[in-house]
Amino acid sequence: MSEVAARPDGAPAWRPRKHLWKALGLLVVAGIGLKAIGEWRDTHALLINASASLPNWAFVIHKNAVPARGDYVFFVPPAGPLVARHFGTEPQMFGKIVYGMPGDTVEHRGADVLVAGRLVGRMKAQSRFGEPLAAGPTGTIPASCYYVGSPHKDGFDSRYAAIGYACSTKIVGTGWPVL
After folding, report:
1. Which of 113, 116, 128, 119 has the alpha carbon at shortest distance from 164?
2. What is the pLDDT of residue 116?
3. What is the pLDDT of residue 112?
């Protein structure tokens, strides 16, 4: 019978040290954690809202979620002279609330805007710089498009032709306020 050689601390030479197993476990857990953070980053974003059109100033955005009525939605605004004059030639994404879904009807009654028969806002005749504002689209909201708005009286949203509907090709994601 052969004997197992012992280390100086008295443990058998073939038995790994406990701290090596702990280090290996920590590396595995760290790897899993980093992978989870990377996957979250690929599907989410953090947005700081610099506009007064929404009541909150920080949002977490879920990039792959399909908007539902009442959700906050974040989208790239359409290019155009009015948007460029007010927000620059490369404006940041806009954040609004989904008031109308595909298939809903949008109506204008004077300055009032109704979506699916519900008052969602009032249009203004001019921008804050005195430029004329054209009324936004009316009729049935097309597939993959949404009527988006803001509770703010000066919100620049689907009420106006310069913004129109937020359609899926321009939507970054939906979000929820965190601050």
Report:
1. 113
2. 98
3. 98
CB-CB contact of 141 with 101 (8 Å) = yes
Q: Which among 171, 173, 147, 170 has a CA at the least distance from the CA of 160?
A: 147
Question: Partners of 175 in the beta sheet?
Answer: 61, 72
CA distance 138 to 108: 7
Which has the closest alpha carbon to 123: 97, 150, 94? 150
Specify burial of residue 29 (Cβ count, 10 A radius: 0-12, 13-18, 19+).
Answer: exposed
Q: Which residues of the chain have pLDDT under 70?
A: 1-17
| Nearest one of 91, 93, 120, 88 to 104, comparing CA atoms | 120
- Quote the CA–CA distance of 6 and 12 in Å, as a whole number: 4
pLDDT at position 7? 63
pLDDT given for residue 33 in this prediction: 78
pLDDT attached to residue 95: 94
Six-digit token string for 167 = 């359609």
